[in-house]
């Protein structure tokens, strides 16, 4: 009989992204980043997808919550101390590329930006928290989008290599765990975040998306090469958006569609970054989207680089599962993490319509482990909800505890299945700006930030009920889930 325990050294923690919490968007030499021109509100993705969107800040028409975030830039010591109080073993955060290279194509880095992350990392280590750094998390310098057209331009490989070399060289002695790109496969649905592509600069041409991916794959391999040359023990992973995907029924049409959906959405980017080569289905996948391999600009030298420097582990986000039905156009649709699908009648949904499926996480862990035979790391998972604090700013978020408890139980079951799971960092461990809607009202954290959708408030931090619950989970290494 298995004891179904989490292994010793399991990395319990939390996850954030620089552009969603730091604020101080032009402080100390920082340049504009892509998120700095994304307006707030539920319509932000529709605004960005409009044919005339040109990456211009229009403060007369829109509000830009990423400019302020939760002001972590001025509160990071307080915030990390709270993470330490919870007992975090690790903290996943990102470095804002435009703090280090304000324009992206600068010859030399901005020392003030590097000094900020010197302090953030030092503060983590002070509280015995292992930093887990995402090198690029939806926050490329805006100049690389406007001047070069985003990641479809191969020049970005050199700019990213310079940036990665700078931060890896600076921090490799303090930071063991890295990821090269956040949710790299999200470009299948929404390429602006990861690739800087919108309708106006070529997002509707699938060739551009696949070219951008290739350029990012090469860049990722170069980061692995740099990191391993600095220290062979560095762990440098990829990071993918994963939504366990089901066929609506046993109709072979839907079964085939589900297979192809998994290839396109869940596996393609991981197959290249983990296995080190393009999968056999690449030609048919591209052909289904009107792209030929001969359309892409790549060299044998680049393919050799992919083969020689695959990633060490698979980081992934998991919030929801998805359903595929090609046989009925009248099925009720639901939203999700940058993608939606057919409503699953067996599942409940969050306040934002994302379907809650803890068993899907166990399936995801098994699928990734079976496919790649490398360690997996759940680096995002959580419940975006409307929190209602009482007069003392206390949030009794039992709904969040219930969500996280069931997903942690699913991870424990996957470990018992034989999956090598490195750790668990729930998303938005402190309230921050939502990437998909630009709202503060969509809260994930264990820590409540007194701030509304217009970034008005005291910015004071308050512990939610889930704070002490998660503290207990970590202290018992997952034995006591309450």
UniProtKB/TrEMBL annotation:
Name the domain of life this protein comes from.
Answer: Bacteria
Task: Write the record's keywords in alphabetical order, separated by commas.
Answer: Glycosidase, Hydrolase
Q: Which Pfam families match?
A: Glyco_hydro_1
Looking up Gene3D superfamilies in the UniProt record yields:
Glycosidases
Tell me yes or no: is Amino-acid biosynthesis among this UniProt entry's keywords: no
Please give the PROSITE patterns that the UniProt record associates with this protein.
GLYCOSYL_HYDROL_F1_1, GLYCOSYL_HYDROL_F1_2
Q: Which InterPro entries match?
A: GH, GH_1_N_CS, Glyco_hydro_1, Glyco_hydro_1_AS
The family database entries (PANTHER family) matched by this protein are listed as: 6-PHOSPHO-BETA-GLUCOSIDASE ASCB-RELATED (PTHR10353:SF122), GLYCOSYL HYDROLASE (PTHR10353)
Tell me the protein family, please. Answer: Belongs to the glycosyl hydrolase 1 family.
Check the record and name the NCBIfam families matching this protein.
PRK09593.1
Protein's name according to its UniProt entry: 6-phospho-beta-glucosidase
- The protein's organism comes out as Bombilactobacillus thymidiniphilus
Which lineage do the record's taxonomy fields give for this organism?
Bacteria, Bacillati, Bacillota, Bacilli, Lactobacillales
